[in-house]
Write the structure tokens for this entry.
Amino acid sequence: MSDTVLVTCGDPAGIGPEIAAKAWATGERFVWIGDPRHLPPGTAWCEIQEGEAPCEGPLAVLRLDFAAEARPGRPDPANAAGVIAAIERAVRLVSAGMAGAICTAPINKKALKDGAGFAFPGHTEFLAHLAGVGRVVMMLACPGLRVVPATIHIPLSEVPGALTEALLEETIRITHAGLVRDFGLPSPRIAVAGLNPHAGEGGAMGWEEERMIRPLVARLAAEGLEVTGPWPADTMFHAAARARYDAAVCTYHDQALIPIKTIDFAGGVNVTLGLPFVRTSPDHGTAYDIAGQGRADPSSLIAALRLAREMAVARRA
């Protein structure tokens, strides 16, 4: 299998093309899939063919012509089909062993829906569909922390109902398998957060911990998984606590994302666990407000590229 990381262009009206060019300029090597017209003016690029290694000088591009030019900060539904095609091409190539991993630049779901009838909540669900996988897990990772939210983009009021024992168990199992396969950890340590303040304080502040989370953790631990909890979320993320686990499974979106974005806002990486291939992404959006201004920070993309390579190596091993 090739070691090449494929970078999909994302929404060309966002900062995706700009951070790709900046990452390349730092010495990162990858293959960019997109329309070269959308790269920042003056970007040196060379067209390559599928399966070829990246160039050593100009940015390596698998050319994919879009319907329209890019207007920074102004998403164009006419380019929706091209954005989708770039993702599909990357999945086809990595699935065929012609690349080692995929790193996706941010997309705009509304523009894709308006322009191409995109029927998925986001990148992750679309990738799972293309891979024929029913359930995947989102992990956010930086050198000091890995977090996995069991429930993601739903209102906080809906979390208690959505956080079922089956969902939490599946999240923990997929996280465990991903840490073994993609991070090279033979016996990963997983800490599970409680839902309520003080992890329910024995039922005084909520029943979910005692009735559901604690029995589940005990059952999985009896199987041999190194899983502990439920832990109070307000004491899980200081340095000494983080040293005691390899990943934290959290009960809802902000419980997971606030600590990692506080610890490493620019360097966080979005990882999809449970796919038959490696996929990472920078942990930010299209940033239309600064697109085309030369201000975009490529740090998260660079971190995502490096983690994708490390995961691909671990998966092969």
